[in-house]
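To close the section, here is one more complete example, presented without commentary so you can practise reading it yourself. The ligand is 5'-O-[(L-methionyl)-sulphamoyl]adenosine.
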Amino acid sequence: MTAARRYYVTTPIYYVNDAPTIGHAYTTLACDALARFMRLDGYQVRFLTGTDEHGQKVAQAAAAAGMDPQALTDKVSQNFRDLRGVMNFSYDDFIRTTEPRHLKACQALWQKLVDAGDIYLGRFSGWYAVRDEAFYDESELVDGKAPTGATVEWLEEENYFFRLSAWQDRLLKFYEANPSFIAPRTRRNEVVSFVSGGLKDLSVSRTSFTWGIPVPGDPRHVMYVWIDALTNYIAALGYPDTANPDFKTFWPADLHMVGKDIIRFHCVYWPAFLMAAGVEPPRRVFAHGWWTNEGQKMSKSLGNFVVASDLVDRYGRDPVRYFLLRELTFGADGDFSHAAMVRRINTDLANDFGNLVQRVLTQVARNCDGKVPSPGPLSEQDKALLDAARGLLVRLRAEYREQAFHRALEAVWEVVGAANRYVDDQAPWALKKTDPARMATVLWVLAETIRYLAVLSQPVIPESAARILDQLAVPEGRRSFTALEPTHALVPGTPLPKPEGVFPRYVEEGVPGTEPKPKAKGRGTA
Ligand code: MSP
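Output:
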């Protein structure tokens, strides 16, 4: 495996003060789709997620629950680990910042910064928002609150500082030399203008509470939770042992996926810490948008968090995965609504993809003796459909490289649409009596097209795709992207299992658009 064929993708590590919401699930899902895509494309992948367990916010949540912080973090971190089954995540490693490997990495990084002369002891006075675990300038406050709406408090304490002010030029040079480091473009502009405006030294330790990683040589201080948290990305690769195979193979990370709320930490502080410590910065940070619920910001006070496991209980795993990645332009904000979810399930999945698979497989079962049909000479229309399917991989690679999941799915669904139109045009059910050999060709072209669609939709809807591939009798070892070569096409005569529906409609009494499916007209529909 060459160095270029490896891929390291990370999620933010989540604060353990709540149940995982659709927002947390969204970030990890995006990484999951990417990780699955890259694995199917032959890359050696490392996909990391975890929980951020230190800091004042977690300490306060523990105090409010009357619990010891470690007991609280053990409990809540488990909810995030349970999300793996709920959402079908495929991460390779889950890091908790209370683990010894993490403590070791943080203290080593700190020492490097001290040795480099980038950390000094001083006195801090300024505004701090515990909810954001962030410092704010007086000029940033809006009506006495943080720009995020979080309550701020005035802090005055002895702190260690990181000499961030000295990194302004080097950061700007770094952004210039690495144009794809921050995405989307609007976020890049935001970061560049923030850094161009001048940087102040950053307080990186606290003395007013103890729930954190002790500063080496001065245990009255615990590290600022962000220097602690960011280090997870290298701690999981065995830092400070930079000679170990994991670190050598996977660092620098190919992608840190984050929400737009935490871009400053990842695009300003993190590369500065790393460069100061002599470690290469990550290759790219993508900041995605924010979900609201039925038009409202999700918040504790409104009690309107969409809990990921509730969604999956109601709609199913693959439909939720599909919806989240298809509904929004990845990078933009968007709104979760029941109506939008139902529309995606009943239109895109049930009517479009589901019906295609079902009508083709049912006809193969009925009219081709339940075996992969044998194609004759291909017509122009046959070739056009197959070419569209065969051209998808190249398009999808480009879209996944840009984290444009919505466009990747649109591309797949364009071919779903083309295949449905082809079924209608060719009317294989009518060919049964008039030209059975042509019927066999048409059904083979369709089954082969469905094979492409299923293989390529595995990153987003892995279980449904697997069920389709099972129904096409595609062996487990023939489901990666190398199997998309025409030489691995469906083999005529292969017996197929009895077809069964893969994408059920969402049916809810009294809700428009969720009526049970109308009785099929014509013989082409299942
Ligand atoms: N612990 C820090 C991250 C440290 S990373 C070194 C943190 N944690 S968090 O629990 O608040 O999670 C933040 C991330 O969750 C966001 O950046 C975003 O990825 C995701 N989301 C949480 N709510 C969200 C929405 N409503 N919409 C979209 N994503 C959001 O910040």
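Once you have examined the tokens, check your reading against these statements. DSSP finds 19 helices and 16 strands in the chain. The radius of gyration is 26 Å.
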